[in-house]
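Sample A.
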Amino acid sequence: MSVIASPHPSALLRQPYRREALFTLPAQEAHVSTARHFTADLLETWSVPASERDSAVLIVDELASNAAQYGRERLTVLLVLDRDTLHIVVSDSGTAVDRRRPDIAPDEHGRGTSIVQCLAQSTEVHQSRGGREVRACLRCSA
């Protein structure tokens, strides 16, 4: 995973794609399930095969959970299906922090990023003063 300072919005928005969806939710853990369910339903509509859809939903779940935990106001999910690649971009309005929650045992916390890295073909993190953007690309045969 790389960390890159990025004052500019996602370059993904400036390129033409076959299918895309963007949604914004409050940065609260209660809204992570909404992101997960919306992603699953949308990818089914886009005819993404079940195994790839499951991987994408897990990636969105992990990234949205992090955004809800560390974001201040909102979290945004961008899904772009371009030929054989699904681009997943989750951004939040938080700052770069590395804090551990004392109410979660160490063996139950911190695996989300590793899960995303295992499932995705590539991941990137872009940090700016306005928040953080995490990108994951997943091969997709839709």
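Sample B.
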Amino acid sequence: MSSTPPSDARPVILVVEDEPDERYLAAELLEETGFRVIEAETAERALAILNDHGDEVSVVFSDVRTPGPIGGFELARIIGVTWPRVRVLLTSGDAGDQPSDLRVSATFIPKPWRAADILAWVQDAAGHPAKARIGADVIGTGTNGSRIIVGEAET
């Protein structure tokens, strides 16, 4: 994680995803629209980052299924108690992961997700004005594990 000068007033989004390609795509999408992005492969790493930089992070965007003993739903619960001002967006491509599993104030968006939907939610959650951009319309994982990136859309 690189150190960013305190004068950088861009909202900080913590992306938690163990799949490097998906984490990279989410981070690139968010950085292109004016956010600072911190990446973590596990919920445990995300908590360590929040312990050090919780006052800077506006939003945590996490997969439900993360390696290790803490998954996305538990991560959202911990964040809700420890950093209540941090907004949480959870995503999953597994049909078994349902929003009804979410017992805290967080939002659930199933994969594959549209880039425009993620951007709109994150921008609203971070208090960052929406901007038009051109980019991938759908990003996520198909039922067979294949990466889905469809079309170019303007939002």
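B remarks: Residues 64 and 104 are 14 Å apart (CA to CA). The chain has four helices and eight strands.
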